[in-house]
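User: Please predict structures.

Assistant: First:
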Amino acid sequence: MNWLHQTLVGFDLETTGTETAESRIVTAALVEAKGGEVVRQRDWLADPGVPIPAEAAAIHGISTERAVAEGRPVAEVADEVAAALCEYWRAGIQVVVFNASFDLSLLSAELRRHGLSSLEQRLGGAPVGPVLDPLTVYGVELADAHRAGSDALAALHVALALARKYPSEVGGLDPAELHRRQVGWHAAWAGSLQEWLRRGKEPQAVVDGAWPLRVTADATTG
């Protein structure tokens, strides 16, 4: 089944930091497109409940003051974003997330932190997906971004470009099969990186091979 002309949804978060178990959501975006044309976009601005570090604000442009003044409680934002994602997945719609193991793991940590239903619970125990991650598929890097809506749309464009360039390996696969293969591709990459690190100066290095959700410690309040 070729999904090039089917509905796709781009998803992106901008956050307070880079640690999935500790960082908080600042902005979120879901961009729905069909045949590469945007048909719907939803954006959220959250008050993360903690100060936004200056280095993070410099990247995505949202200060603590703006988030407090204009943002909604992060628990409400996380709940709405999770509900929207799961609605797409229940319909079998592929969600495109650049570096999915970061965004989805961070969202999952926020849900745990606020005592909200997990993505898996919302899916009735089914695994998360289908997800398409351009970074996992061919190591594509995304530059000049850091606005949730722009990043989500860019991820969609990259996914479509990959599907056109590699019709048999990407574009021609059923979304569920493409998702399954990415699990293997990411695990192979993580294993290779871990082996390389252990041969050098990090003999105890561990690279998490889980995708699209990382294995993280429980998020705590505060």
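Second:
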Amino acid sequence: MSCRSNEFLTAAAIGLMIYGLPSHTQADDPSAPKAIEGSGQPPKPDVPTVVKLSIHPALPPAAALEYPLLPRFVDQYPGNAATLYIKVATLMADRKEPQEYWDKIDRWREMPLAELPRGEIHDRLVGYTTILDMVRMASRREQCDWGPPVHETTDIFGILIPEIGHLRKMGSLLALKARLEIAEGHPAEALETLQTGYALARQTADCPFLVCSLVGVAIANLMDQQAETLIQSAKCPNLYWSLTALPNPPVELRPALALEADSLFLAFPELRGIEQAQHSPEEWDAMLVEFARRYIRYADWIDKKWSGVGAAAFMTGRATLLLPRAKDDLVAAGRARSDVDAMPVAQVILLDGVMIYKRTRDDLFKWFNVPYAQSREGFAALDNRLKNEIRDREIVPIASVLLPALSKVRTASVRSERRIDLLRVIEALRLYAAEHNGKLPAALDDVKEVPIPLDPVSGQPFGYKLSGATATLDAPPPTGERWDILGARYEITIAGK
């Protein structure tokens, strides 16, 4: 038998050691859920939802930043906000409100102001007085350290953060509170509630996991919706400079992205510096088996196709088929052919997997650092490579399973950024109207009083057209995106005209 055939047998043996043979599969289990065929429902039409705004002319306050949308430094106090938020989550969990309770709150916060059942909403908010007070106090703490044990455990994907789901519900409750305050003609109170909500969004994202950051983005979006309602109020001061001072996007994603980029090496610290590691063949075999036994739990959690007898046979075949390619890749990366040929099979598999992961991770994450309009093609190319080329090259599917759908995260972030910039444009229109006898400008270029932001999605000016007394402010989605995901259109009139 040739040396190469011995390598194939070794690879196959390692594959079977790693993945084993289960006692039964889902297909053997009559109680297992079956695949559900398509519903047959036609796709939702991709048309813009037009938001009609009736705005009142308004100049900025004499002190331009009189109404900040985050707590001022002077209003913050020493302490850790996370300790209060954990208490809030505990109190909310103890209440055991059914999902219908929160569904009703979500309907109310989108209901027209004139239709709001104010008495019922008052009663509901009174029941949360203590919790709302604690959230307000937490939002004004100087720091928010959630303290997840990311460096004290290798079970990085198993760290539990149940508080975050309760904070998302608290964001919905704050949005409802702001909406009621707007409906009752109390813009100052509504602004303070929005201030608490935006701070909550940012502090939620201080827990450095991507899911926490995305919950923070969702909470900020809830505040944006109520800010949009507030600026239609006749009593609302012009918030152009307040919106401009708000961090944009309101939620910082980079700490979570930094952890996400290193999550493989936090979960499997033995892979750090593996390129320089020296082990015996038996130690390399043991290392691969132990890595794969732990890794398959995570892969199975992410995608069930990596469990069961099918995965065992599939991965054994991959090790046999792809080992020559893996060796060629290591040589192409600068290693001597003789050194690579002398490596144990397990070492080749691990080195190749880590190399593919690092290169793919950096190719993916680098696009988050450039403007959205310039990053879309880069993300699309990487998404395609992950689904095809990289998935087909990996012996152990590390990069294609663990790396996040970063293009969708970037879309969520720029959607939030765009919403703030659209509100800034609307406030600029209110300012222009206050300076020009209640009239809207014929073009955005006519607004000289304040800078008009560019559309962060396209990198170009927002669409704007004045027809009679109605202006259309347009932010269409880029090619390939739907209007309901990344598009917005406003029809704006001056109240009373």
